[in-house]
Amino acid sequence: MRQNLFGCQIDALTMAETLAKVETFVESGKVHQHVVVNVNKVIKADRNPELRRIINQCDLINCDGMPIVWASKLLGKPLPERVAGIDLFTNLITRSAEKGWRVFFLGAREPVVAKVVEVFQAKYPNLSVAGYRNGYWEEQEEGAVVETIRNSSPHILFVAISSPKKEEFLGRHLARIGVPFAMGVGGSFDVVAGLTNRAPLWMQKSGLEWFFRFLQEPRRLFGRYFVEGVAFVKLLSRELWLSKTASHIPDKESKQ
Predict the structure, then answer these.
(1) What is the pTM of this model?
(2) String of DSSP letters for the chain
């Protein structure tokens, strides 16, 4: 079941249900795109109709943000839980090693993505890495990047490129790449490579993981977490007002 929140469609799924769905996608062999929605993505989608269109046409849309989960309950469209992108990413690596799925890593700087491959191959000797590439290229190189991924025939493509570039890249080329499951993983490569740390579990569960990230990179993340936070509160207020207004509109049929 999908919920419409702030103009974005979001699948009301748990982590276990999400993993089961991904497995059916991979087994089908057909092309599928995944995206996560958080406060940052909601704000960008509200300002960028093309990004919103790309998000809403994805085959699997998870909520990766406790504020969105809280907002969904306030709006009467509850989501069961936060499905964090990095948790889905690592769970899929484990499952790929178990099932023999080939994976491709795209994004970040060359030393970072190379370290990610090194870490996962050390932890999962059976993991089949189809290939990897950094996330920096000139416009004229994009076709070659697409062909590199396509020719490696992965089952899953993990993309660590910033939004909306990531969504736009997949929107343009996913059909050509032909991968059964493509997933954006945000800053997960940095975490796996040991450049940044995840928040303690109690902060993750209490919805304070964003604050832990902010403390690590305050200059870079101030705008994202505080300026966009204000914008999100305004969006939520608008949605609450619209839902309240709609509930007070008389039903014409009931009057007849």
Answers:
(1) 0.86
(2) -EEEETTEEEE---HHHHHHHHHHHHHH-S--EEEEE-HHHHHHHHH-HHHHHHHHT-SEEEE--HHHHHHHHHTT---S----HHHHHHHHHHHHHHHT-EEEEEES-HHHHHHHHHHHHHH-TT-EEEEEE-S---GGGHHHHHHHHHHH--SEEEEE--TTHHHHHHHHHHHHH--SEEEE-TTHHHHHTTSS-PPPHHHHHTT-HHHHHHHHSHHHHHIIIIIHHHHHHHHHHHHHHHHHHHHTSPPHHHH-
- 5, β-bridge pairs: 8
Residue type, 84: A
Spatial CA neighbour of 240 closest among 72, 102, 101, 84 = 72
pLDDT in tens, 81-125: 999 999 999 999 999 999 999 999 999 999 999 999 999 999 999
Which residue is it, tokens 């993990």?
158
